[in-house]
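Blinded run. Sample ID left blank on purpose so nobody reads anything into the name before looking at the predicted structure. Input follows.
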Amino acid sequence: MRIAVFGASGRVGTRLVEAILADPGLELAAAHVSPGSEWIGRQVANTVIEYRPAETTINAHCDAIIDFSTPAGSLYLQRVAGRSRVPIVIGTTGFTAGQLGEIDAAARYRPILMGANFALGFVAFARSVQAFALAHPGANVIIEETYHQRKKRLASATSMLLAKSIHAAQSSGAGAMPPEPDIRIHRTGDTVGINEVRFDLGDSEMRFNFSVRTIGAYAHGAVAAAVRLVEGGIGPGRHDALDV
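Blinded prediction complete.
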């Protein structure tokens, strides 16, 4: 399977390139960077591929595209892709409602898989948390996140996703409107990512913890998602990783 990487010079993008090159069942189709990037023209490892800006031929020789760039970059990619049916996995977060509308418009032509956290195991973690929330709609919920100190002190897309799914599950289980989960933010050293969800049941407490040790976890998960997207024959539309 041939996979192109969009945002190939970023923290996750570089790991994506490494993961694809290390997998004998995969082939790196292209490594795309922004038009003004200093990476343009550099050789990718020991391949004949060079880092290049995205262009209209981005879809010509690949089975899937993995995008870890920026919201603006993701929208540019969709415009460049045009009406191509090549599946796209988006690990970029921070989209506005209007930007998601543009993604939806592009998804009429191809499957687009989006996820707040592509680390292997996260989907199972999030589903377990959601199931517990449904079974205990009256529990008070605290979500704690810990990331590296360079990350903005705003709730991550991962915490926002967990809060939304927990609130929906508790609302469904209680038949009423429970309080929103409390999100607590921590930034420490070079921590890649620790997400904890605590359910306070009064006389007891349940804790769910998910830790990401290396940035490579996001890359390996995104590659697995791309393979699933292609081999699963998933049709056009904007899909959520939790559903797929």
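Unblinding after everyone has recorded impressions. Residues 142 and 182 are 5 Å apart (CA to CA).
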